[in-house]
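User: Okay, second chain of the day. Same drill as before: sequence in, structure tokens out.
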Amino acid sequence: MRKIAYGAWFDSIKRAGDFTGAQIYRQIALPGKGKALPKPAPLPMTEGEGMMATFSRPEALVTGLEYVFAETKKPIMISEKRN
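Assistant: Same drill. Structure tokens below.
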């Protein structure tokens, strides 16, 4: 799934980019062939019951950036983040 979503973007960064930018908003589980992950515990610092509060996961920032760096080996500029 990630290759489909990000493959062309990563290829162009590796080929011609000096760095990449990242905008990490939230972490959403996508259906796949593997075993379903357990639902994450509620976070005490999120307020409300809306979609953003439900999907807001601070750990999405680190896991997202680790993935981008692993694929590109380029410096990353965090251009926007919401959590």
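The radius of gyration is 15 Å.

User: Thanks, on to the next one.
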